[in-house]
Amino acid sequence: MNRFLQLALDLFDPPATPAAGPAAGSTPRPKARPRARPDLQASLASAPAPAPVPVDLTPPQDLGPAATLDQVLAPASFTHPGANRHALLGATRVAYEFKRARRRNIGFSVGPEGLTVSAPKWVPLYEVETALQSKSAWILRKLGEMRERAQRMETARIEWKEGASFPFLGDTVIVVLDPRQGAAGGGLLQADSQSLPGVARHTLHLGLSHAASPAQIRDAVQAWLMRQATRVFTERLDHYAPLLGVQWKKLSLSSASTRWGTASADGSIRLNWRLIHFRLPVVDYVVAHELSHLRVMDHSPRFWDTVATVVPDYQALRGQLRDEALPHW
Ligand SMILES: [Zn+2]
Predict the structure, then answer these.
(1) Which terminus of the chain has fewer Cβ atoms in its 10 Å neighbourhood, N or C?
(2) What is the DSSP code (8-state) at residue 85?
């Protein structure tokens, strides 16, 4: 049954017509990114390597008994917005960005936009294709993970208005517009001990009028979160520094989208304020990680041993940090 469906999808989505929409009968594509497919013919014409793409005619992979109907019906393609080549990996059409680079081997990277392949100038295209096929299981798994993540991010987008909710130290906090608070207070967190189980207990009372714009509400919440971040991070740094036998000098907040924290040899620590969305143990892991760098500057086994002395379950916490989708701001 699965195999039949896959074959049917292949027929509906032939590689020869890249401009065609998603296969009939497939589930709608996620809305996370603009779905416009780049015109492969046009981009091939301007690409440095205009040779025709070898199309793999091997039969579709058997997804095995573990495949759910969703997986079988999922759009059998991934398209990088800067795609200039494509390949058929099993039953899945992958349009990827291909770059010639000064490097010694063929490199694959899967990011939020899709697959990028870079190869040295002297490697012929058929070898690139062979390498793609041999790495296809890894590539498809990563592309699937990225698509899932993008979908989770999309649902995590916050609409800033009265009643909006956001995560704070792993708990859900609900925004209440409360002009009586006055602008000076910025925000007041209140806990309702009488709420029903499963209903968020915390409300953040912002000193804003009911006519406040979404941007004003978002900025007020962010300012409040950044103050909480400074308070909590300072407290946790003070807790872990003596345990690790190090001294930290200065804390600054960052909002880099790719890094949770950095440590400099002079004892200054930078932490991403968005960490405050996570449960305290996750915050603690990042704090302990950066402080451990004041003892071991690299990520050698000795470094991880140092982290483990104060956060023994750091591996699980590290995984949560990677997997959880944070709200969009
Ligand atoms: Zn590190």
Answers:
(1) N
(2) E
Closest CA to 112 of 70, 145, 156: 145
Burial of 106 (0-12, 13-18, 19+ CB in 10 A): middle
Going from the Cα of 42 to the center of ligand 1, the distance in angstroms, rounded, reads: 43
**What's the gap in Å between 56 CA and the centre of ligand 1?**
41
Short-list 98, 105, 97, 94, CA closest to 141: 94
CA of 290 to the centre of ligand 1 (A): 6
- CA 293 to centroid of ligand 1, rounded, Å: 7
**Ligand 1 centroid vs 97 CA: distance in angstroms?**
30
Q: State mean pLDDT over 162-179.
A: 92
Q: What are 279-311's pLDDT values in tens digits?
A: 999 999 999 999 999 999 999 999 999 999 999
| Ligand 1 center to 306 CA (angstroms) | 12
pLDDT at 97 over 70: yes
Please give the domain boundaries of the chain with CATH numbers for all domains.
73-155 (no CATH), 166-323 (3.30.2010.10)
Ligand 1 centre from 182 Cα, in Å? 41
Q: What is the pLDDT of residues 182-202, one digit of tens each?
A: 655 568 888 776 656 666 679
